[in-house]
Write a structure and sequence with these properties.
The chain has two helices and four strands; from the N terminus they run E-E-E-E-H-H. By secondary structure, the protein is α+β, with helices and mostly antiparallel strands. The chain has one domain. A hairpin with a 2-residue loop joins strand 1 and strand 2. The longest helix is centred in the middle third of the chain and has 20 residues. Keywords: Oxidoreductase.
């Protein structure tokens, strides 16, 4: 099962997972976490802490990072 990435750390979730199916075959590809209120609140706090640094990052660097992230997907 996949985990949540919160504040730079991979976190287990306390709730059941949701299966993701291949629509062509019906095969289960992966299970994604169904985050609860606690995980969402923790993620929002981490995002708020990260925002000042991210907002000071030059636009071109942010664009490059997002394109690198896209390749990983």
């Amino acid at each position: 099962m996949l985990k949540n990435l919160i504040g730079g750390e991979w976190k287990e979730v306390s709730r059941p997972a949701l299966p993701v199916y291949n629509p062509a075959t019906g095969e289960v590809l992966e299970e994604v976490p169904l985050s609860g209120a606690e995980e969402v609140e923790e993620a929002v706090r981490a995002a708020a802490q990260a925002f000042p640094g991210w907002s000071r990052t030059p636009l071109l660097e942010r664009v490059r990072l997002m394109f690198r992230f896209k390749v990983l997907l």
